[in-house]
Amino acid sequence: MELLSIKTGFTKKEIDYIINLFIDNIITSVQNGEDVEIRGFGTFSQAIQEKRSIKSPIAGKTIEVPAKTKINFKASKNTDKQITKGA
Length: 87
Hints:
The protein has 87 residues and is of the alpha+beta class. Helix content is 41%, strand content 31%. The chain starts with a helix and ends with a helix.
């Protein structure tokens, strides 16, 4: 936050507000079934994880895990390249 504050001239409180507003907007859009693409960074989307059976290592029983909705992120080629370049 401090670096953004220095580069933009906004206060840390203003930067925090803007970032939280941005994140809330992404979450709301994805909850409504929309994909959110940030060019050069990646795409957020909704993914349905199907119901499945797993074996509990503790109880030794098979447990049914219900289906659920998750948020999915797919990095852009540029983001992926920058991240793997440093590895």
